[in-house]
Specification:
alpha/beta, Aspartate Aminotransferase, domain 1, Aspartate Aminotransferase, domain 2, 2 domains, seven-stranded mixed β-sheet, four-stranded mixed β-sheet
Length: 468
């Protein structure tokens, strides 16, 4: 029998099922603000505390297993305990993790990364995607002698200063700010915005107008080929290439932030776009922290210590042997077969989610590319971050309830809608998940009828009314 108050039932079920996570959250709050150390992984009333990972599953503190449909926000590709990755890390840790000098692991990993991303003729290592984008932009500024960066409104490139100008989470969900006005996040100096120009995603006309106005001061344009936390929105046909042409026409560089889209093959190889600089992280570390940036040999020569006036690059754990060992094992098992499998899973997932929405009479669409997907409530899929913000406005509770109900069904997802799989995930798992998604949407229909009737088709709304 359908609950008359599905929101209350979903919350009460979560509280009853997770007492150990509740206790862990209380203890963690004594040392960590909010009881967590990553903003993205917190959710009300408290997040699950995870204790184990095995294959494509994770276990919480109460001993319950969940199929992992998130892959640590896309950072994992090979599951949680792939034997080859475990063996590589075990071997390396007995030899040392960060000896403090060059190691063979650095060039061995770089050779594999160059094969995966041929535009990265020369590579430098760091520890995260945040560092990788920071250094790629510094490279562009050093090469061009210019300071200004063009970025996408809602584009997420990490948590350094300029990266937190007009990132998706720098403004309230209901912000009415224009998508071309730079918005520094709280705590970021207002002066930072003076070095950042912002343009909407998938809008080459506005980008052209911006370059016509300030192009002689632009060092680079940085862009995600699929807009990540801004909604999983793929770039339109020819858009990235056109951005690169604009940049080059004005003496600026094109930086592709492929920290997330490396799991697509990476994106630039799939679509035949050759950037000047590329950033990678996530998958390339095999489950350990690793970032990389690189590009044309003449651009990266600025880091050569034997050259004139080299750019100083320091990092105690940059290119550490442990992360590189895991990354080498991961890249050796991330070829065309694995990428094609992730593509198949992603296409199957998006078709299944669209079918789940149709079957339950809920207006919603899955978007994404390859093994990177999102689900959005609403009539029309978003084209840019501003459209994503409009689709999410006033619907935070709805997304939270869907997330909790999916946990009850045994699936770990993200409250904001991201879905990523592992190369070990089976197609049948995708089918089971989309069936569970349909069940959760159906359970939420009375809530939708009361709070978001615009998200129900007329036939679905009539069915809900008849059941009351």
């Amino acid at each position: 029998m359908r609950s008359a108050d599905p929101a209350r039932a979903i919350r009460e079920t979560y509280l009853a099922a997770t007492p150990a996570s509740a206790a862990a959250a209380r203890r963690a709050a004594g040392s960590l603000p909010g009881g967590d150390t990553r903003t993205m992984t917190w959710y009300a009333p408290y997040p699950l505390f995870l204790t184990h990972g095995e294959g494509t599953r994770v276990r919480d503190a109460d001993g319950r297993w969940y199929e992992d449909m998130l892959a640590n926000y896309g950072a994992l590709a090979h599951g949680h305990d792939h034997p080859a990755l475990v063996a590589a890390v075990t071997r390396q840790i007995s030899r040392g993790t960060a000896p403090g000098g060059p190691t063979a692991a650095q060039y061995e990993h770089a050779e594999r990364l160059r094969a995966l991303t041929p535009s990265m003729e020369r590579i430098r290592y760091c520890n995260s995607g945040t560092e990788a984008t920071m250094w790629a932009v510094r490279t562009a500024r050093a090469h061009t002698g210019r300071d200004l960066i063009v970025k996408i409104d809602g584009g997420y490139h990490g948590t350094h200063e300029w990266g937190q100008v007009s990132a998706f989470f720098t403004a309230p969900e209901d912000s009415g700010d224009a998508p071309t006005r730079p918005r520094p996040a709280r705590g970021v100096p207002a002066a930072t915005a003076a070095d950042v120009a912002v343009v909407p995603y998938n809008d080459i006309r506005t980008a052209a107008t911006t370059f016509d106005r300030i192009g002689d001061r632009v060092a680079a344009v940085i862009v995600e080929p699929v807009l990540g936390v801004g909604g999983g929105i793929p770039s339109g046909p020819g858009y990235i290439a056109a951005l690169g042409a604009l940049a080059h026409a004005h003496g600026a560089l094109l930086i592709l932030d492929e920290c997330a889209t490396v799991r697509l093959g990476p994106w630039q190889r799939r679509h035949g776009v050759v950037p000047d600089l590329t950033t990678h992280s996530k998958v390339i570390g095999g489950g350990l922290p690793l970032g990389a940036f690189g590009g044309r040999a003449d651009l990266m020569a600025v880091f050569d210590p034997a050259g004139p006036d080299p750019l100083y690059h320091a990092s105690a754990f940059g290119g550490n042997s442990l992360s590189l060992a895991a990354g080498i094992a991961a890249l050796d098992r991330f070829g065309q077969r694995e990428i094609a499998h992730l593509d198949l899973l992603g296409e199957r997932l998006r078709r299944g989610l669209d079918a789940a929405a149709r079957a339950t009479g809920v207006h919603g669409h899955a978007v994404g590319e390859g093994g990177l997907s999102y689900f959005h409530f609403g009539d029309t899929p978003p084209r840019d971050a501003a459209a994503t913000a409009r689709l999410r406005r006033g619907r935070a509770e709805l997304r939270a309830l869907l997330h909790l109900d999916l946990l009850h069904a045994g699936y770990l997802t993200a409250p904001h809608g991201l879905l990523c799989q592992h190369v070990l995930t089976e197609p049948a798992t995708i089918d089971d998940f989309t069936a569970a998604y349909a069940t959760c949407l159906d359970r939420l229909r009375p809530y939708l009828a009361d709070h978001h009737p615009e998200l129900l088709t007329r036939a679905s709304a009539d069915t809900v009314r008849a059941a009351i």
